[in-house]
Amino acid sequence: MEYKRLGKSGLQVSRLSFGSWLTFGKQVGDTTAEDLMKLAYDHGVNFFDNAEAYAGGKSEEVMGDILKKMDWRRDSYIVSSKVFFGADGGKGGLMPTQKGLNRKHVTEACHQALQRLKVDYLDLYFCHRPDKQTPIEETVWSMHNLIQQGKVLYWGTSEWSAQEIMEAHRIAERYHLIGPTMEQPQYNMLVRDKVEVEYSQVYKTVGLGTTIWSPLASGVLTGKYNDGFPTDTRLGIAGLEWLKDRALAEENLEKVRNLSAFALELGVTMPLLAIAWCLKNDDVSTVILGASKTSQLEENFKAFDVMTKLEDEVMEKIEGILSNKPEHPDF
Ligand code: NDP
User: Fold this and answer.
1) Whole-angstrom Cα distance, residue 270 to residue 281?
2) Is 203 a catalytic residue?
3) CATH code, residues 3-216+281-292
């Protein structure tokens, strides 16, 4: 396993990490969840990603049970939670105080995540989306206070604009508070803008670690949807029609079909080509993998071997197939 500093912090995160969205507490049973975590840890994964909203809090409970059972040294892994969407709000649904980035919810969601994950502190705590209802200043103070209380070590954002991230830094600097360290954006062969263009200046100035999500675009970049719809996969889960429609757009499938043919020529599998391509980007601190089966994780950990095949000429050919390179504005 390779490790990389998270942004300008001194924290070394494994370049491949593991997350539990849609799997733990939902698509896979607890025994599979445990097998996946063990496999990841044994391969040197030191970052496990979670959020209050995953399976309405159940995903954190399942991960917490596994962390407790495994009894791995607490200083050997990094665990995260994210706040914004809220967890299970009970029968009446979520109350306004049970979501968002206001001081009340950020603080209570942290306490609840600690309980569900059964840990004394969160290594990383993300604002899962920007909150247009709460002044950024209130969120920065709330995160800073949690850090001062020892309940959180680093805080960051997910899917914030570069402008919002810089605003958080401006406030932090003004009041001598701890600013955000990392961002969690979607990044894969089909979605590139934020990581490749929007954050360019942020990496150079205040520094920004990136823990990127959906490297396989929810499985589409494995090529398994190229010629039909396999059963027993994420995009068949009831209630996820919105994701299915978006992910399986014909434009995406056409690209993946062409990429799959190229992967065959290269002598690599499509999932490995897609993951290695993300790893090639030096602005990516860690690629968060998702998996519903241990065989998938076993395969995906071989991505480092494929990276060596991605020489300039190969990357150019991929660029030609994708034809979606985001343009850098001329300054
Ligand atoms: P991917 O895009 O890599 O999708 C993972 C899914 O693809 C697996 O669950 C599996 O689904 C399928 N898959 C994985 N490997 C293989 C393989 N080798 N062969 C065939 N199928 C494979 O990642 P996720 O979308 O799961 O995102 C990763 C993590 O990122 C999440 O767990 C979460 O922690 C984080 N995340 C954060 C978000 C945010 O807003 N901050 C949003 C989304 C995710 P199946 O078997 O069901 O087909």
Assistant:
1) 18
2) no
3) 3.20.20.100
Report which ligand 1 atom has the smallest distance to the Cα of 296.
Answer: 18
For ligand 1, which residues put their CB under 6 angstroms from it? 19-21, 23, 49, 158-159, 184, 213-219, 222, 224, 233-234, 271, 288-292, 296, 299-300
DSSP string computed for 157-223: ESS--HHHHHHHHHHHHHHT-----EE--B-BTTB-HIIIIITHHHHHTT--EEEEB-TTGGGGGGT
Locate the domains of the chain by residue range. Answer: 3-216+281-292
Annotated catalytic residue, options 41, 54, 154, 187? 54
| pLDDT one-digit tens code per residue, 73-131 | 999 999 999 999 999 888 889 999 999 999 999 999 999 999 999 999 999 999 999 99
Per-residue model confidence (pLDDT) at position 12: 98
Residue entry with tokens 């998938």: 296
